[in-house]
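User: Show me sequence and structure for the first protein, then do the same for the second.

Assistant: Starting with the first protein.
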Amino acid sequence: MNKRIQNMADNRAKLITAARKAFAEKGYTGASMDDLTADAGLTRGALYHNFGDKRGLLAAVVEQIDSDMAMRAHAIGAKEQDEFQALLAEGAAYIRMALEPEVQRIVLLDGPAVLGDPSQWPSQSSCLQATRITIERLIAQGVIKTVDAEAAARLLSGAALNAALWIAASPNPQDVMPKAIEAFKLLASGLLKHDS
C-alpha cells in the first residue's frame, strides 16, 4: 500500500514538473498532452488518473507556482523590522514576480484564461487569509486605522494581483512594474493611522 501511494505521489510530481516546463515554453494551448506525458515518462492514463484532464493539471501547476510565489514574497517581507513595511514588501515582491516568464505565462496569462477568476483560486485564498491576520494584528497594535480586516485584505490582495496581471499583459512590463508598485504602496499607506 505504501509503495503504491509513493508511486502515485512520484507520478503526480513528474507530471507537474513536465507540465511546468511545457506550459512555460509553449503555453497551455501549445503544450501537447502526449509530449508532456512522454517527457514525464508516463501515459495519458496517469495524467487522467491524477488530474482528470489537462485543465486539472494546469490547476495543480498554478497552485504550486502561486503558493511558491506567496512563500517567496513572505520571506522577503520577513526581512523587514516593521510589520507594516513587511506587508508592503510582500505585496511589492508579488508584483515584481510578474516579470518572471514562468509566472507571467502560466499564472498570470494562461491561468485566468483557463481557470477563471484568480481571486477564487485556493492559493489566493490562503494569501488572503494570511493578509487578513496581519491586518488584524496591525489594527490591534494601532498601526493602521480601524477597518474591516477582511475588506482591507481583499482590497490589498486584489491590488497586488491586478498589478501583476497588468504587468503580465502589458507590452512594456518593465515600464509598468515601478508604476504599479508605487501605486500599490500609496494605496496601502492610506490604511496607516496618523496621529495628529
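Switching to the second protein now.
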Amino acid sequence: MLNKPKARACKDDVVATVARMRLLQIDSIHVVARSPYLVLHSRIGDYDPQWLEDVLDTGRIAESWAHEACFVPAADLPLHQAWRRQRAMHWAYKHADRMHREHRDGMDALLARIRDNGAARAADFESETRSAGGWWSWKPEKRWLEAWFALGELMVTRRERFQRVYDLADRVLAKLDPPMDRALLELDSDALRRRFILDSVRALGIAQVRWIADYYRLKPAVTDKELAPLVAEGELLVVQVADWSVPAYVHRDHADWLAQAASGQLRATHTTLLSPFDPVVWDRARAQVLFGFEYTIECYVPAPKRKYGYYVLPILHRGRLVGRLDAKAHRREGVFEVKVLYLEPEVEATPRLLGDIADAIRASAQWHGTPKVKLARSRPAPVAASLRALLR
C-alpha cells in the first residue's frame, strides 16, 4: 500500500491481492463495507465487490481456517488442509469434533442431504428461531454446517449475498484453479511451519520475530534461533532498524525494496482508510511498534468503555497511521457518516494531509455508494471545518 493503484482494477487484481497477503480475514460486520471488501478497496481502489464472490465461485480462491476464517489463494489450500490435520487442537476443530460426538445423527443426516441434493445454505434448513449471539446461539443446522466445515467434510463453494453456500469438499476441490497439488498434503509439520514462517515474513514486509507467529496462529512462538537457518540459506535477510533493540527480518523477495529503503528512495504516496481487520493493524503490538499507533477493535468492547467508537477505521497516510474515524454507511440515504475523526496527537493538520484524507474519505464514500459525506466532529475540533470544506 505504498502507492495508489496505477490502473483501473480488474478481477485478476482481487486474486493477486489475496495471493500477496496470503490470506484475507473474513468478518461479517457491515457498518461500512464488510472487512474483506474494505481490505481490497484499500489496496486496489474502486472495484466491483461481486468480484470477490466470483473468484471464490470459480475456485481461484478458497475459504479456510488460517489467521482466523479467511479467503486464501487456491494454490495454498492444500497447505492449510495439511496443517488442519496436524493441529487438531485448534479451537474450531475441537468444538466441531465435540459437536459431532454430541449430535452425530443430525450432523450425519445433514451431510447426507448435501451429498444427495447438492450445495446448501443454512437458510435452506428450517429450525427454531435463533437467539442473539455467536456460534453457540445459531440454529443447530448452522452450527452443524460450520462444524463440518471445520472438520473438512464441507467447504464453501460460493457465497450469495455474503451467505455461505456449503458443498462436499471433494466437489469444491475439483474446481480449484490451479488444481490442488496433492504433494503438499504430505508435507510434515516442520515443512509446513517453515512455509508459513516465510510466507508470514513476506506478507508483513518487515518483521520482528515476535510478530511472525500471529499471522498464521503458529504455536509455539517463532524464535530467532528458529530463523537462523533461514537466514543462513538466504531465504530471510536480517536488518537493524533505528530505535529497535531487536533484529528485523525481510524476505529475500523484498531485497530490492530493502535497498531502496536503505538509500532513502522508498516513498509512500498512498492515503486510504483501513478495515479494523486489516493485516496492517490486527496485531496491536506490531502497530504500536511499527507506527506508534495504539489500536483496539472496539466493536467487542462494551459501549460505555469505548474510547473512539464501534467500528473505527485507521487512516493510513503516506506510510504512517495518522488517525482514525468512526464511520457508518447509510446506503438507503446515500450518506457516508463520519461520526468523529481523530488525528493522532503528534500529527500536524497540514493542508496536504487534510487534502489527502478528504480524498480518501471521498473515494471510500463513492465506492460504498454513499457519495454524500457528513462529518459531525473531529479532534482537534478545527479540523472538521477544514475537512467539510474539502469534501463539498
